[in-house]
Amino acid sequence: MSSSTTSPRVRRGIGAIGLVAALSAVSACSAVGVNTSIKNGYLPEGVTEESVLVENLWIWSWVAALAVGVLVWGLILWCMVAYRRRKDDDGSLPIQLQYNVPLEILYTVVPMFMVGALFFYTEQATSQLQDVSKEPDVTINVVGKQWSWDFNYVEANVHETGQMADLDGTPGAEKNLPTLYLPKGQRVEFVLTSRDVIHSFWVPAFLEKMDVNPGIVNRFQVTPSQTGTFQGKCAELCGAYHSQMLFNVKIVEPAEYEAYLQGLRDKGQTGLLGIDLNREGINERDRKRLDEALTTDEETN
């Protein structure tokens, strides 16, 4: 085949690869927002002490993947150069081998070790992220509902209730979203429940999320490490207005957090919003599970 027929194909192939790479880069940037950098693998900037576990797993997984990629690409290029067709070749095929036992063992065992290592470190990070054995300083019952959130601050015995976001494009509309307050430097345990269907509690800046299921109590803990206002959302398709199931997360100093709780008391928002507000009404199984989760946290405090 002449070079005049192969060159356009090669150019089109290179162009397609470049287009895919560019689109991937653009979509990645738009997905994670502006608070990203190469040092954390272009993840959103983590704002909890636990987020470093996710960052390390993500970065070193990419390092391992790139190392394997470089090795494979290097071997491919080496074969292309070392075994290229030369002018003095007589056109006969090279020696054909039926099998090579050492080589077959190598490319069977090495991938198994790689998958095993990835599984080990992923399981290790996941176990630490889902560990709720430590005593929390603050317990918050996060309740998902179509299409907003309620927040029960258990120890303070106060609550905040949210309504579906009305995002009409006007600047500042996000200020009307329900806001979850967290104290910086204190271990917070989230007790997740749902009033109706499956939701998912996701704060991108935490670098972790967890499902919110009806009839099931899920829990995880974080320790906020920096102040600021961040976005939260539902990450599970839960109905027509899923995209508007948004909330704010405000991490503040402990004194400001206590002042916020006092403000809820002053507004008369005392007591915890119960499961009697669930779509199906009171469910004894749900009540028992939630009571057990909250009672355990109160006893440890």
UniProtKB/TrEMBL annotation:
CDD domains hit by this protein: CuRO_HCO_II_like_5
InterPro entries assigned to the protein according to its UniProt record, in alphabetical order: CcO_II, CcO_II-like_C, Copper_CuA, Cupredoxin, Cyt_c_oxidase_su2, Cyt_c_oxidase_su2_TM_sf
Enzyme class of the recorded protein, top EC level: translocase
NCBIfam families to which the protein is assigned, alphabetical: CoxB
Family annotation (Gene3D superfamilies): 1.10.287.90, Cupredoxins - blue copper proteins (2.60.40.420)
Domain of life according to the entry: Bacteria
Key words, A-Z: Copper, Electron transport, Membrane, Metal-binding, Respiratory chain, Translocase, Transmembrane, Transmembrane helix, Transport
Cytochrome oxidase subunit II copper A binding domain boundaries: 135-263
Keyword Metal-binding: yes
Reported function: Subunits I and II form the functional core of the enzyme complex. Electrons originating in cytochrome c are transferred via heme a and Cu(A) to the binuclear center formed by heme a3 and Cu(B).
Protein name in the entry: cytochrome-c oxidase
Entry's family note: Belongs to the cytochrome c oxidase subunit 2 family.
Highest classification ranks of the organism: Bacteria, Bacillati, Actinomycetota, Actinomycetes, Micrococcales
